[in-house]
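Q: What would this complex look like in 3D?
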Amino acid sequence: MIQSLTDGILVGAIVSLGAIGLTMVMHMLRFANFSHAELLSIGAYSALVFDALFSGILPSLANNIGPLSMTWALILSMLCAMGVTGLSAVLINEFVFKRIREKGSELSMVFASFGVAMIIRNVLGLIFGLKSQLYSNDIVFAVLVSSEPQLLIKPDQVFVLLAALLIMLVLHFVLSHTTFGYALRAVAENPPLAEVSGIRLSRVIALVWIISGLLAAAAGVFYGLNNHINPVIGRDLVLPIFAATIVGGIGSVYGAVLGGFIVGIAANMALLVLPSGYSPAVPFIIILVLLLVRPHGLFGEAET
Amino acid sequence: MAETLLHATNIVAGYVKDLPILKKVSINVKKASLTLIIGPNGAGKSTFIKAIAGVVPVTSGKITLKGQDITGIRPDQMSQHSIAYVPQSDNIFRALTIRQNLELVLRKNRTAIDRIDTLFMRFPILKTKQTEKAGTLSGGQRQILAVSMALAAEPMLILMDEPSAGLSPKAAQEVLQLARDLTTEGVTILLVEQNVNQAMRLSDHCYILAEGQNQHDADAAVLLNDPIVGEIYLGGKRMRAE
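A: Here is my prediction, written as structure tokens for the whole assembly.
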């Protein structure tokens, strides 16, 4: 019970990071981007490449940090991967979504996002192969925190949770205390008014893609640390991330965080009562129930 | 005779190319005056001030401000051209606090942040509610915030699109009086209003548009006593006109 809750919180933190980016893009550009979770894959694989690179150049970086399987090389790689993913997000927007927006409707963009997702997934498969890979082959043993009830936690999990929370705090600070954050919220609420208030829309939209890319890359690396890295990370995570976004209410960053934890915890807790094959269905049950009770999500605003 | 601040000649503009809403509109706005634009629904009043603000593309014609060509400016650069635009509805960010709304419009000009205090002195209601979400404000208070956001950039010209729409008669009178007061401080106001009676009493000059074209223009005082305008816009009786 406690074990499922703990695992759920960890999964929740990763899903939240993905959902924050998705909710921002979805709200601002008014389309459901089904390729968002592929940004997690891009992040995870870029970090893998940089990790090999840094460890090769400076072997001293490849030592584990304390009890973690994490190395300094991987931390550096994660930062680089965040950059690469942010840039990828901007380029995808520039070459695909922006062009379709000029000619087609939001629905065309939704379909295009499925296409983008498939392209990214298969290109990653082509380059890196379909076999699962790991950041580290070291075996990190979970620490027995308590035996009754049984609770095992890996040091990496603690690190990931703290890092995810730190990223969310930074984002919260930016959104609530900087004029750049106000500008982001202004564009999300009312793009035409934001423009006449002196905000250059195209620039803010590019920045939102970058932010969503940065968060997705972090989520991808964190996921890879606790699981395997393979080209179908995006496919596996797209639905939980969407569920978290919808549960939280589209456009609400705080809703996305809460939604992520709800989905993560619920999916893990469900394992206690359901056969594991049914676990992927849990997010949908949450969406269904929530939309019946609160059609705009927990924090979403009704369209006026 | 006060100098001309805004000059628009033969403006053709619309959202869709080849389907202009404004077919040919020209106006002249004197510095520190309150100029009113009225006309029936669909006359292109709002489109016209949006065209000045750069929100609606101008197909042909020329707009100058103090002699400088400002035709087709980028809307996000309005404040650099010393223009501010107050849209009709949804003219504040509801999810931001009152203070954040004001800080947002001043974000490129951090040295001017003390202007917020000046605005708070002028509109104490904004100060008392500064940490509250702008969405909690009443209709009249929203308009005051919207006008304050425009004033924060210290523009020469403020374009206002029906600021009294949806307000109580008292709040409507207050917001229109505020527009009048601003002109005494040297700000020029170009106002679109449906609330013709109240607005015309406070205006200097008035343009009447119809079907995307100039129909008539005269000093507001003259139009107020014009029997035909009275009949159409001010609810006067034909009997009196005859």
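A: To summarize the key features: The domain at 4-93+158-241 of chain B is CATH 3.40.50.300 (Rossmann fold). Residues 169-184 of chain B form the longest helix (16 residues).
Q: Very helpful, thank you.
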